[in-house]
Amino acid sequence: MQGQTNVPSELTNAIGIAAGYYHSLALKSDGAVVVWETIRMVKRICRGT
C-alpha cells in the first residue's frame, strides 16, 4: 500500500474509512465524504444532499 496511512490532518469526526490501492475515503459524522489519493496527493470533500 502506498500512503493510505497519510490521513489528511484536517480530517475530524470520521465514522468510517475505506481504502483502495491508490486512494482512501472517509465518511464524516455530518455526511461529508473526504477522498485522498496517494499518487497526486489530492484531497476532496464531497457533500451529498
In brief:
The protein is mainly β. The model has no long low-confidence stretch (mean pLDDT 76).
Structure commentary:
With 49 residues, the chain is mostly beta strands. The termini are far apart. It has one domain (1-49). It contains no helices and 4 strands.
Task: Give a quick set of tags describing it.
single chain, 49 residues, mainly beta, 4-stranded antiparallel beta sheet, globular
Radius of gyration: 10 Å
Give the tally of structural domains. Answer: 1
Ranges where pLDDT stays below 50 over 5 or more residues in a row are none
- Rounded average pLDDT: 76
Q: Helix and strand succession?
A: EEEE
What does the overall shape look like? globular
Q: Biggest sheet, in brief?
A: 4 strands, antiparallel
**Spatial order of the strands in the main sheet?**
1-2-3-4
Strand content: 35-45%
Helix content estimate: under 10%
Cα separation of the termini = 32 Å
Count the E strands. Answer: 4
Helical element count? 0
- Structural class comes to mainly beta
Write the layout of secondary structure elements.
Blueprint: E1 14-19, E2 23-28, E3 33-37, E4 43-46
Antiparallel strand pairs: 1-2, 2-3, 3-4
